[in-house]
Amino acid sequence: MAQNDTVKLIGSWSSPFALRARVALHLKSVKYEYLDEPDVLKSKSELLLKSNPIHKKVPVLIHGDVSICESLNIVQYVDEAWTSDPSILPSLPYDRAIARFWSLYVDDKIFASLDAVAGAKDDGERMAAAGKLMECLAILEDVFQKSSKGLGFFGGENIGFLDIACGTILGPVSVIEAFSGVKFLREETTPGLIQWAEKFRAHEAVKPYMPTVEEFVAFAKKKFNVE
Amino acid sequence: MSSDEVKLIGAWASPFVMRPRIALNLKSVPYEFLQETFGSKSELLLKSNPVHKKIPVLLHADKPVSESNIIVEYIDETWSSSGSSILPSHPYDRAMARFWAAYIDEKWFVSLRNILKAEGEEEKKAVLAQVEEGNALLEKAFNDCSNGKPFFNGDHIGYLDIAFGCFLGWLRVTELAAGHQLLDEAKTPSLSKWAERFCDDPAVKPVMPETTKLAEFAKKIFAKPRA
Fold this sequence. Notes:
Structural class of chain B: alpha+beta
Low-confidence stretches of chain A: none
Function (chain A): Is involved in the conjugation of reduced glutathione to a wide number of exogenous and endogenous hydrophobic electrophiles.
Domain GST C-terminal (chain A): 92-224
CATH topology of the largest domain in chain A: Glutathione S-transferase Yfyf (Class Pi), Chain A, domain 2
Number of helices of chain B: 9
Keywords (chain A): Cytoplasm, Detoxification, Transferase
CATH architecture of the largest domain in chain A: Up-down Bundle
CATH class of the largest domain in chain A: Mainly Alpha
Main location (chain A): cytoplasm
Helix content of chain A: 40-55%
CATH topology of the largest domain in chain B: Glutathione S-transferase Yfyf (Class Pi), Chain A, domain 2
Largest sheet of chain A: 4 strands, mixed
Pfam families (chain A): GST_N
Oligomer: heterodimer
């Protein structure tokens, strides 16, 4: 498929993973048709089921007549298929390996911790899960300090692969903070991440697509039937 | 950087460790293999992969890279002018290779491992069925990716061949233990032939453990503790 074949993205307004794809496509100035799945957990469109028969999840990128699934895969694909600036992955092999490693950590460990806090059945479980989440965020803070070298993003001066991977935790973290009354991103423990979160949310490739904290919390309250 | 020392922390029986070993062989990169003792983790491992404490870890000029598939990409990018390309060149083929490699690790291998852990015939039957479903998907993926050529990657073994092929030893051990053929000419004709070619490849042969040795090792690690 050529660079100027049609591009469609199947996503969902609240999906942090769909956000990754949207940010990448914006960075590369790719024109695409956005197809929203309004209630993706309860009902999935024919097109989604056909394009992602194995996992049946958003996001799915449809480029010409092929589909690409899994958000981090899509981001790498966008970076490789549209070679104009800016580069999303870092240029050196070692830095790329590190970015990939920590993105995997976000998906495997941080999202698992978030799920554990959200799904905890009692206070004991919740406290243990919250402790694990704090640990993960402390590790991420350390990664941020080393990776950003004082320049503002994980990618340095500009937003990059690891910013896109990590940015997706912000919505779920803000919902958990609102529901539990506990701050997981704090000045005392994660000062770098607090500043980075603001910059990330405000970035022109992110702002149009990322729900605000208020919108996210309202959505979660409705979804989980909470006052 | 590429003339600096290369070490790999691993263990002979680990399919994940086999991945970077095959990749280093494909690129003709000499390296020191630091074998971990089963049941304990060396200081070097704990220092080089503090987050997961798992093998394999590649040390290149003392800089650690962890996570087997990430290490394979790193090797391909660092020694890009040596040997054949491990990742395919077209962005879509690369996305497919990464997608299937993740599927293999997250779904297929988990089911395979569960066969040996299954208690009772019912559970064993159910898990065997899961693996066979996965094999059918991978048979189709092979036919799609290889396009009539001998490997997933085309003429030479590549990322997806390595990601899947590394499990062939354990697959054979599981078949013996369960008394059930999983990869065979009737159910998975393309994959059966591919498996033979893969194991015969000069980059794979030296690092693929013998089935009998692996079966002995499996007995040891899956042995139920005596009362």
